[in-house]
Amino acid sequence: MRVLLVEDNDDDALLIREALSETTIEIERAERLSTALEKLAEGELDAVLLDLSLPDSHGLDTIGRLRSATAVPPIVVLTGLNDEEAAVKAVERGAQDYLIKGQADGHLLVRSLRYAIQRQRAEETLKARNRELLVLRKISEAILGSLDLKLVLEQILRQAMSSGSFDLGNIRLLDSSGDTLEMAVVKGYRDPQNVLSHRSISRTMGAAQSSRFRDLLFKQPCMEEHVQACKGLRTMKKEGVESLVQVPVRAGGEVLGIIQLASRTPRKFRHEEVNLLETIGNQMGVSIQKAQLYEQTRDQAVELKKANKGKDEFLSVMSHELRTPLNVITGYAEMVRRGMFGEINPEQDMALGKLMGCSKDLLGMISRILQATSIEAEAIGLEKNEVALRCLLDDLKSVCIVPLDKDLNLHWDYPCEFPFMKTDGEKLKHILQNLINNAIKFTDKGRVTVSARHLPGVKRMEFRVADSGIGISQEMLPVIFEKFRQVDSSDTRAYGGVGLGLFIVKKFTEMLGGELSVSSELGKGSTFTVTLPIEV
Ligand code: ADP
Q: What is the reported pTM?
């Protein structure tokens, strides 16, 4: 152990030398603070034994002035002043210990110096760990804060450079061929011409060597502490680089690129420093994968949107084309049935009736597909008018008929007086008609109740269609409003339909500024509730 004894008093210095003569401690002496600072600059000292009254410095300030030098070893104060308060202050100013002359024998001095060295080392390690953690935290924040890969890489490079006070750096990523390193971000270069945007590994190395080089390059960190003296590294030399470290960027065992950090002054790379850079390389790998995944998902979403649009267009064109011949079929059937082409017998009349019924169903289905695709394409607008609710409900009442084969009671419950609603009457009618049709369709016996009431407090109207039919299971409730979704999607479906009715109902309700909800119990029935603002 080499100790610098800063002591102007020859007798005291002699005493200390004697006290330490039996130990392995080597003593270097300085009589003034200025000499002590010069000796410290030369380095290679493990600790300082400091007297506080020197010819060129006096008192506790001496500690601060000594510590202002770079790379100060631990300081143990050895003074004649037996003052508890001064001892505490000395430690606060950075001394490791405070000993009183005459009370400290050789044994105590050695122990204090040893402890001081160890404590300072531990403190430095702790500080270094804290710095590393801070760097890693900042990098994590950068990764979490953005999906823009270039921006994240720039922030990572900045943090990596400041972690070891590097002058310049770059991050290169392998392209999809795995052979070319593309420059992703650079920082600190003096001449942009020294930034090589691509580097083909096999072309620069020769195919045979390149795989070995790649292994070498990517498996472990590489360091060069004398760049100017080594072969190659042309651009780094031109940039005035003296020391260079390179670590791989990895994710899940796969190498994605490299990060290079360089310094224009000669320096050594500590093991912990390189470890930190490796961790940064791994973090970067994760962020690159995350960004790539995001880009992939975004591209897929665009593709899906395109495919969806194509499907909607197809449905729309097909429905249009189907509607025209279907109208001709029903038109001619109607004319035949009316006897415009001659007398028909009762069997022919019944057959034509069925043909017309089925054509009407088909036409309804096609219209719904057209409507749904128009909604998707946002091609349906609102037509706001003053709606007399009472008339609207009376109209509905007159057209909603329960099929004769059902033991069903259709009950209407609404007051005689309603406020005027300013909304799209046709859409409102469509909503209610669809809900009532469904209620009748899915209820074989019992009751279907259609009710309407004014909610003056919230300036809304509430419409309810409740049935005592088959009901819907809880897990199916959320999906019945989706396009082409039906609870029973088996080949042997008991009820017809294409699964568009509720989709249109929901979209129309939203267009009218309202809400649609459903409550249902399997086997007991369902209640659909629509609330709409009086004025949309
Ligand atoms: P569809 O035209 O096939 O009836 P909808 O969109 O109108 O399509 O309804 C979707 C599905 O929701 C139906 O297939 C049915 O399974 C269920 N559903 C709708 N209304 C009721 C109801 N009142 N009672 C029971 N199930 C219903």
A: 0.53
